[in-house]
Amino acid sequence: MTAAATAILTTQPLGPLWPTLDPFLFCAHHDDAYPAGNGAFGPAAPLLAGRQMGSDFSRQDGWSMYHGQAVPGFPVHPHRGFETVTLVRQGLIDHSDSLGAAARFGGGDVQWITAGKGLQHSEMFPLLDASAPNPLELFQVWLNLPARNKMATPHFTMFWNERIPRLIHHDDQGRTTTVTVVAGALPGTAAPLAPPPESWAAQPDADVAIWTLHLAPGATWTLPAAQAGTRRMLYYFVGDGLRLGLHDVPGHAALEVDARQDWLLTNTGTQAVECLVLQGRPIAEPVAQYGPFVMNTQQEIMQAMQDYRSTQFGGWPWPASDPVHGPQARRFARYPGQDHEVLPPDTTA
Description:
Low-confidence stretches: 1-5
Structural class: mainly beta
Number of strands: 24
Radius of gyration: 20 Å
CATH topology of the largest domain: Jelly Rolls
């Protein structure tokens, strides 16, 4: 069998939800061409015709309201038993949660939440610009927790764009590949930012990596081998030509890649290529899921539902189910138990 035949183990199309491998549960790519805002954080466009308000995933006119009624996004909802990692490529997200944390983040920022034993949060997409479009693009990735950590204390953290490590690689022809390292060590970059303490990604032998790749036209870069037992998905979602090893990928797809050896990536097209990489050693435990709860057994799912009904996972300290954090397009975070705001690092000095 040739190297070309073994580089790619499986190929699947990219639909609304992208296929994942253990330890990952879910990967959604939201790419919404929102119009100008209406001055109240919603779209200056009719909402009733063709949209099922409160559950609008229609992508009518290139965007959705999701579960938002006036502002697009996801009003208050619960989670237990896993983590959410949200990578924002453009636009802004307003986060609020039952821990009392709040944030407005975007433009390359990453939010990482360990739901653990349970929390509620909202994720709203405020349209601040009333004179121009408000595009929003993000990935939301769900990372499972092992049984021993499913009832961990919830944890909220922000990775500001300015502090996320990046590899800038120039090949022999001077063409550039940029690798943004949200999680997982990569030779040639600074140490990765620390994931939440109870995360599977915090285990040294879990070999969890979350990277985004940007290859200029004609650029080459070697995707390095992972640890033994690691499984890797590469999502090719932007560009018009990608070669993995000796294999030309015919179109945008989710590719399970043999992680045991290095593979040369080549942008064979005329446009930039962009990929997302998710990898890790499988947790290899049973998964029982019911909506926003991910446990190991159906009995634990039933307990999660009962706990949520009785405790509301700490309640909801916000006056609305869909809080929005004002008209200013500034990024900030307010951590649980704190009343001061943390701002992104100042890179202008």
